[in-house]
Amino acid sequence: MIKKKTLGHWGAVTGICILFAGCASLPDREPLDDAEEAVQPVLPSPPSEAEAEHLRSEVARAISEHSVAELGVDDDLWARVRRGMGMPDARDEDRVLRYIKWHQEYSQYLEQVTARAAPFLHYILEEIEARGLPTELLLLPIVESAYLPMAQSPSQAAGIWQFIPSTGRHFGLESNWWYDGRRDIHASTHAALDYLTQLNERFEGDWPLALAAYNAGQGTVSRAIQRNERRGKPTDYWHLDLPRETQHYVPRLLALQAIVRDPQRYQVGLTPVPDEPRIQVVDTKGQIELAVAARLAGVDKETLRTLNPGFNRWATAPNGPHHLLLPADRVSDFHDGLSQLDDGERVTWQRHRIRSGENLGRIAARYDVTVGTLKEVNNLKGTIIRAGDHLLIPSPGVSRQVAAGPTQGNEPTRQVEYTVKPGDTLWHVARHHGVTVRDLARWNELSTSDILRPGQTLIIRTSGEPVSA
Questions:
Q1: E-strand spans in 369-412?
Q2: CA angle (244 as vertex; 240, 246 as ends), nearest 5
Q3: How many angstroms separate the CA atoms of 155 and 25, rounded?
Q4: Which residues pair with 315 in a beta bridge?
Q5: What whole-number distance in Å separates Cα of residue 416 and Cα of residue 436?
Q6: Contact, 59 vs 111, CB < 8 A?
Q7: Of 108, 351, 391, 469, whose CA is between 20 and 30 Å from 87?
Q8: Cα(46)–Cα(112) distance, rounded to whole angstroms?
Q9: Which of 413, 286, 294, 303 is nearest to 343 (CA)?
Q10: Confidence grade of residue 52 (pLDDT, cut at 50, 70, 90)
Q11: Is residue 351 within 8 Å of residue 219, measured between CB atoms?
């Protein structure tokens, strides 16, 4: 997968994601019920020589731009992680050793993931410590999603913590047209830590069992324990008969624990990360357009979207949540600007009460917008409207943005979602929609050599109609 960012600039960290863990085939993760076993490769595919060389050069550039080379031991976030570790040391277990050896062979992988995760690490670590949880949990999103906020599995698990919709709702993560809390770094981190705390209590402080339950479901782990009890066998994680993926899920995390604890012993490069806040949660005090929020904070819109991937549209959700993540050094400017902002400037839309006899065409003409824009803004599936209901009417500027969709440079585009069918390839989908394979891969955080999975959802940005296959 490819995702562009840098450690030194908020708007772009570049890297190639190797699917080490698993957003590709995670099981449904229900809080109370079992999950079906998901079969996936035990080890990820190594990067190609071209990918590896590209990765090395981009990571080197990111590190040099951020000037972390002179960090002292006590200034490095990884030193803080080491001090807070509390899970069992299992570095000598065969399954753990297997993943340690993988990281030794492909040590650039952690450098790349660290570059992507860097803006969020300090924030998540503080949340972990505030609950008195072991700091190894900071490494769990590496196993779950490689810290890709837009990662999504075939079972619709999404975000860096990989919640499926039902489990997300159980832990307070809303998912609607405007917003998906599973991709909100702030909200999903709180939900994941709530869930992990609950699992740890259920399994009486045994973290390997709690982690196994996070992956496979509480019932699956409990029944495996009961089977061993009946047979007079040990009931610790290492002796349980668990789904194949779960047998390798916990060792992946414990291999990362061993490497972070002693990177020199394993000769795995661990990019230094300054132990200082990079982002901060701010209260927007109501709905606000992302472009307006970016202007108030003095950041570009791409930066704001990168830090707030939970928002699906051009504005925060009308009914909340009313928070954003901002670079820590821009929070003061944002608050100053927000305090001087008139209510009418927060969202440049009007609210229209539908009168008897009106239709979408007449209303669109009255406000100089398109019918398509009205349908998208108001999440309408068809053109039927009812007298007495209300419609949100964007300003002409917002209307043009809605009609165009996300932009690449100055070229107007529209965005559609495409569900992968059996036999589809990136080349086939790109050709069918009149886009390049490189762009299609970039929009979806993929490598151009990635194999598509039936049911996978692709984002496609195009200014024209699909061409014939």
A1: 390-394
A2: 65
A3: 8
A4: 289
A5: 15
A6: yes
A7: 108
A8: 14
A9: 286
A10: very low
A11: no
| Cα 443 off chain centre by | 14
**Residue 279 DSSP SS3:** strand
Q: Catalytic residue at 144?
A: yes
**Res 462: pLDDT:** 58
Contact 207, 200 (CB under 8 A): yes
Helix residue spans in 340-395 (DSSP H) = 343-346, 360-367, 371-377
> Tens of pLDDT along 95-117?
999 999 999 999 889 999 999 99
CA distance 420 to 457: 6
Q: Which residues are within 8 A (CB) of 352 and not within 5 positions of it... i.e. 6 or more apart?
A: 363, 367, 390, 391, 392, 393
Q: Which of 51, 111, 144, 376 is catalytic?
A: 144
Angle 70-74-77 (CA atoms, 0-180°, nearest 5)?
85
Report d(CA 407, CA 131) in Å as an integer: 41
Q: What digits encode the pLDDT tens for the residues 63-92?
A: 334 433 344 455 799 999 999 999 999 999
φ/ψ of residue 264, rounded to 5: -65, -40
Phi, psi at residue 243, to the nearest 5°? -55, 150
